[in-house]
Design a protein that fits this description.
The complex is a heterodimer.
Chain A (H helix, E strand, L loop, with lengths): L1 H8 L6 H7 L3 H29 L10 H36 L7 H20 L25 H29 L12 H32 L13 H18 L2 H15 L6 H15 L14 H13 L1 H15 L8 H24 L1 H7 L3 H31 L5 H27 L14 H30 L36
Chain B lengths: L15 H20 L4 H29 L5 H40 L8 H4 L28 H24 L3 H33 L6 H33 L9 H26 L1
Helix pairs in contact in B: 1-2, 3-7, 3-8, 5-6, 5-8, 6-7, 7-8
The chains are: A mainly alpha, B mainly alpha.
């Protein structure tokens, strides 16, 4: 038995392209996920800049309206499925085995497949921009009947989504199997770092909802090509039914995009406040409550579609209830910092920016949760402002914070702190310049997903466009910093951060190829 | 947790995942091109299916060889168990989407089209003569008039067949645990045959529906839910039967021990899952 093992996996370190194509190593796969997410971040970002350039002034000047619509659609699909989700999965790959004291992920070959489906899926998705009839332009939510008017791109978009779903499901199965089965002796569930906890629950949400999305888009496909009537009222179906099925996936998806961010903030803030996390158990229960509630709030995306009053009330009240566990979390982060000896290195700055600006997005979410008020806000830029606050200075900031926090561990080099701080301040100023004015134009009635607008919205839109370009170019600094740190720099200690706790900091920087070949003792 | 004896087996690099990605992508690009009317689409699909099958043969073959050589400890076994469990859960949720569509149509969209509910004006404005009923092809009579499949003919028989196959599979499992290899092979063979008979009846039923009852995939919401639910179920029965047939081949080759036979159990879990989905189908699609 041991003969086979030493033959096959004893610190074998393949090199060249094969290392990356055939790898079963959690660190290599984590790196692939993160680099893929970074690449897609610039692709999706370029699309956002096309949108903002068109909206710089009223009138139609840069692009055709159809292309504008496919930019909003593709920007969303790329950012959600190609940036935030792969980045979180990359972090999970790198960190979960190290945090629970395992050698690697539980199912290493499948881990490779989860990643290597993605480049194929996104090649398929992005290629639709060059097809007859252009890319998908019905919005990332793909509502029929509009979505059914897509040209040749249609089946490619559907199948690309199927592939992304397969990738996410396999990745999530791996995360759950790793967490449930690979923990070091003594690492019981309530000792796990919160990043591990939030990912466990995220993975559950993914496995529960991605198949539902697959079902929804399959019904779209058969409605278009095989004569089914799921979303056709003449045949007894209902276009609104698509929205229900889609948002049954879509709302848990929103928490898939933020729960790991909660885990990251809960890792970083105690380190730089030099205090243990306040209310660990309540954080776990709050995460689980948010996950549970995410399954019973979906129709708050559909208040104006025409629902029975009982439905409006139910979904309004359940949605507001989410503010309770979320409030617990924000309170705990603040309480962790209370009377701490705080320092403000770049990861901490991004984590603090996350807490403050995510909370702004949370509050605008509460406003949107009020059904009668939502009738005013629905499909305006206020909604755009809301979800960009939770996704950009929320999810994306948390990912950036995580990269600064763990990059010294991964590479063995410190990043350039001065440039890191520049990156933070430029990002924070420009992200607010981009998205805060959208609240105002939204409340004043500017509709989303339209390439032109009334004159009175011109000033705020010009400001938002300047902010967007500033934010976009500030991210080049991030890419530069990351590659600079990978290539070299001041040697990082194993501990890296004075106040850091957890198994990953007991490994060398950079850690060995196989994390814990013998399980560590957890007290 | 890591109490198991021996090291956790971490496989070396594998090219099968990449082959799988190429296979799936070829299959789907082919399918999409075919839907767009390109003639090469079907050829591409075929190539995709072949590549995917080669991948599955190679990948599973590697895992079988590794398992037979005894390098998987109890902890690896548990990882496989969690993997299969959550995979089946994802399948449950896939079916849930289509059951959801069925319930939504029956509870909401069809009654609303018939004029029920305060807000729904569709009936009075568009189809004042439409009365809500189930089954229906909708107010537009999409696909024309059709007859439905009665529950107490072939579907009831198929229910009995699948339930029996679940029992014969459990019998095979007990035989495996007691090391009675003859009974094990017989039980598996009977299970696979029952699965094949089920699929044969299902195929006959589809032919009957299309040629005699004018019940088609395009027969409004009834036809859509009927064929998509039973169709995806039939696909899963096919997959399950193939899995069990492979288990039978492995049994005949002398694989599995009374204590160590997770592949068999995984296939059995899958078969029982398919069985349970059928019960839901029988009750909500055929019977009620």
């Amino acid at each position: 038995m041991s003969a086979v093992i030493s033959e096959t996996h004893h610190d074998e370190h393949p090199s060249g392209i094969k290392r990356w194509l055939f790898t079963t190593n959690h660190k290599d796969i984590g790196t692939l996920y993160l680099l893929f997410a970074l690449l897609m971040f610039f692709v999706g970002g370029a699309m956002a800049l096309v949108i903002r350039a068109e909206l710089f002034e009223p009138g139609l000047q840069m692009v055709e309206p159809q292309f504008f619509n496919s930019m909003t659609t593709m920007h969303a699909l790329v950012m959600i499925f190609g940036v935030v989700m792969p980045a979180f999965t990359g972090l999970a790959n790198w960190l979960i085995p190290m945090m629970v004291g395992a050698t690697d992920m539980a199912l290493p070959r499948m881990n490779n497949w989860s990643f290597w489906i993605l480049p194929f899926a996104f090649t398929m998705l992005l290629s639709t921009l060059f097809m007859d009839g252009g890319g998908p332009a019905g919005g990332w939510t793909m509502y029929p009947p509009l979505m059914l008017q897509t040209g040749d791109a249609f089946p490619f978009v559907i199948f690309a989504i199927h592939l992304m779903g397969i990738s996410s499901i396999m990745g999530s199965i791996n995360v759950i199997a790793t967490i449930l089965n690979m923990r070091a002796p003594g690492m019981n569930l309530m000792k796990m770092p919160l990043f591990v906890w939030t990912w466990l629950i995220t993975a559950y949400l993914l496995i529960a909802t991605m198949p539902v999305l697959a079902g929804a888009v399959t019904m779209l496909l058969t409605d278009k090509y095989f004569g089914t009537s799921f979303f056709n009222a003449a045949g007894g179906g209902d276009p609104v039914m698509f929205q229900h099925i889609f948002w049954f996936f879509g709302h848990p998806e929103v928490y898939i995009l933020i729960l790991p961010a909660f885990g990251i903030a809960s890792s970083i803030i105690p380190t730089f406040a030099r205090k243990p996390l306040f209310g660990y158990a309540s954080m776990v229960y709050a995460t689980a409550s948010i996950a549970f509630l995410s399954f019973i709030v979906w129709a708050h995306h559909m208040f104006t579609v025409g629902m029975p009053l009982a439905g409006e009330l139910f979904f309004m009240l359940t949605t507001m209830m989410i503010a309770v566990p979320t409030g617990v979390k924000v309170f705990n982060w603040v309480a962790t910092m209370w009377k701490g000896s705080m320092t403000f290195e770049t990861p901490m700055l991004f984590a603090l920016g996350f807490v403050i600006m995510f909370t702004i997005g949370g509050f605008s979410g509460l406003m949107l949760a009020i059904a009668p008020v939502d009738f005013q806000y629905h499909d305006t830029y206020f909604v755009v402002a809301h979800f960009h606050y939770v996704l950009v200075p929320g999810a994306v900031f948390s990912i950036i914070a995580a990269v600064y926090y763990w990059l010294p561990k991964w590479t063995g080099h410190m990043y350039n702190e001065t440039l890191g701080k520049w990156h933070f301040w430029l990002s924070t100023i420009f992200v607010n310049l981009t998205f805060f004015p959208m609240h105002f134009v939204g409340l004043a009635g500017m509709p989303r997903r339209i390439p032109d607008y009334a004159l009175q919205f011109a000033d705020f839109n010009a400001i938002a466009t300047i902010g967007a370009f500033g934010f976009g170019f500030a991210q080049l600094l991030f890419a530069y910093l990351v590659f600079q740190t990978i290539r070299g720099g001041e040697k990082a200690s194993d501990q890296v951060w004075e106040g850091a706790h957890g198994l990953e900091w007991t490994l060398s920087s950079p850690p060995p190829y196989h994390s814990f070949t013998t399980a560590p003792e957890v007290k | 947790m890591a109490h198991a004896e021996g090291q956790y087996y971490i496989p070396h690099g594998s090219h099968w995942p990449l082959v799988g990605s190429v296979g799936l992508t070829t299959l789907l690009v082919g399918f999409a091109s075919w839907l767009n009317g390109a003639e090469f689409g079907q050829l591409l699909m075929l190539a995709g299916v072949v590549i995917t099958l080669v991948m599955m043969f190679g990948w599973f073959g590697t895992v079988v060889r590794e398992s037979q050589s005894g390098i998987y400890n109890a902890q690896v076994d548990l990882s496989f168990r969690w993997g299969m469990f959550w995979f089946i859960f994802s399948e449950v949720m896939f079916f849930a989407a289509f059951f959801g569509a069925l319930f939504y149509a029956r509870q909401y969209s069809v009654p609303w089209l018939g004029g029920e509910g305060d807000g729904a004006m569709t009936n009075s404005v568009l189809w004042p003569s439409f009365e809500a009923a189930w089954p229906t092809a909708g107010p537009g009579e999409v696909g024309g008039e059709f007859e439905i499949m009665g529950a107490w003919g072939i579907p009831a028989l198929n229910t009995a067949i699948l339930l029996t196959s679940g029992a014969t599979l459990t019998w095979a499992h007990h035989a495996l645990k007691e090391d009675k290899r003859g009974q094990l092979a017989l039980g598996l063979l009977v299970t696979v045959l029952l699965g094949v008979i089920f699929l044969g009846f299902q195929a006959y039923e589809y032919g009957h529906a299309y040629s005699d009852l004018n019940l088609k995939l395009s027969s409004g919401i009834y036809g859509s839910t009927f064929f998509m639910l039973t169709g995806f179920h039939g696909l899963h029965v096919t997959i399950g039967a193939i899995m069990l047939a492979i288990m039978l081949i492995r049994v005949l080759k002398g694989h599995f021990t009374s204590k160590n036979h997770f592949a068999f159990e995984a296939a059995a879990w899958y078969w029982h899952f398919v069985d349970v989905v059928w019960l839901g189908l029988f009750i909500f699609v055929y019977w009620l």
